[in-house]
Design brief:
The protein is α+β, with helices and mostly antiparallel strands and 284 residues long. Among the domains are: 1-72 and 238-284, no CATH class; 136-211, no CATH class. Helices cover 38% and strands 20% of the residues. The chain has 10 helices and 11 strands. The chain has helices at residues 2-18, 76-87, 103-112, 130-133, 191-194, 209-223, 225-232, 234-237, 239-248, 259-282, and strands at 32-35, 46-49, 51-57, 60-67, 93-95, 116-118, 144-145, 150-152, 158-168, 174-182, 204-207. It has a 5-stranded antiparallel β-sheet. Strand 7 and strand 8 (150-152) form a beta hairpin. The longest helix is centred in the C-terminal third of the chain and has 24 residues, at 259-282. The termini are far apart.
């Protein structure tokens, strides 16, 4: 019985350390196990670490934050909160790569912060490919009739509105969907190519109207000359900072433990990057 009590107390302490995370390191409880880009064993091994976020301008690091969440999508909003609280007022354009593109992030930037989001979504580049546009079984290519609110599948059957659905993400953010369903998919010659639904079930399609509007907004902004040029500068602005840290300073891992100490070490490293950049510019 005593052993059970001791173990229960240990589990309770572990849960307190976990918080909203799914893991933690025993040698650094603030760190979370993540899949790193440097995977020397090529087996997807997990390592304890922090998700480092950096805001830059002209290859200078202006702000940084360390997060225990390995997913970039869920670090953008808290990082923007930190920037506004501890650093500076957010610029007109928020520019990131596609790993940050989500309905929640677009909603936060466009509606809550009143800024422009120059953030592509995951399938942005893929949608431009010819194979994607000509795929008859891709529901994004199915004709839509606004008057009847129906989609037409490759077998010329209509998918009509069936019901609404709401999904809640891990962060508590809710996404709303409209569900469309084909009335009869029996004996369809394209069934195996069109759907994975079990025999007897009809093809369904879930449409998030808010997400579709956001994607159209992104496509428009990234195709405009002015905002498109701003987005294209991202690679030559952000990536050199990380490249200099890793290649020139050999800064590929932290040498201390505990989030507060790691934040200090990261701050010194970014300070070195900025000083080196400034010195190089003065000597030109």
């Amino acid at each position: 019985m005593i052993d059970f009590i001791v173990r229960k107390q240990k589990y309770q302490r572990d849960l307190e350390i976990f918080g909203t995370r799914n893991s933690y390191s025993k040698t650094d409880p603030d760190a979370t196990f993540m899949r790193m880009k440097d995977d020397y064993m090529k087996n997807g091994q997990l390592k304890a670490g922090y998700n480092t976020q950096i805001a830059t301008e002209g290859q200078y690091a202006l702000a940084y934050g360390l997060f225990s969440n390995p997913t970039d999508t869920r670090t953008l909003i808290p990082f923007l909160d930190e920037i506004e609280q501890d650093y500076f007022e957010l610029p007109e354009h928020i520019v990131t790569d596609a790993s940050y593109g989500s309905e929640e992030n677009y909603n936060d930037i466009l509606l809550n912060r009143k800024r422009e989001a120059l953030i592509p979504y995951t399938l942005y580049m893929k949608e431009k490919k010819k194979t994607y546009k000509q795929n008859l079984f891709n529901p994004d290519n199915w004709p839509y009739d606004e008057e009847t609110d129906t989609y037409t599948c490759p077998n010329q059957k209509h998918l009509t509105f069936h019901d609404y659905s709401v999904r809640t993400d891990r962060t508590g953010f809710q996404r709303k969907f409209k569900i469309y369903e084909c009335k009869d998919c029996s004996d369809c010659p394209f069934r195996s190519s069109c759907t994975k639904a079990k025999e007897g079930n009809n093809r369904k399609r879930m449409v998030n109207e808010t997400w579709e509007q956001q994607k159209e907004y992104v496509r428009t902004k990234l195709s405009e000359e002015r905002t498109g040029a701003i987005y294209r500068k991202r690679k030559i602005d952000v990536e050199p900072v990380f490249g200099f840290l890793k290649a020139n300073l050999r800064f590929t891992r932290f040498s201390v433990r505990g989030k507060s100490k790691v934040e200090n070490e990261m701050g010194f490293a970014l300070m070195a990057v900025n000083l080196r950049k400034y010195t190089a510019q003065q000597l030109r």
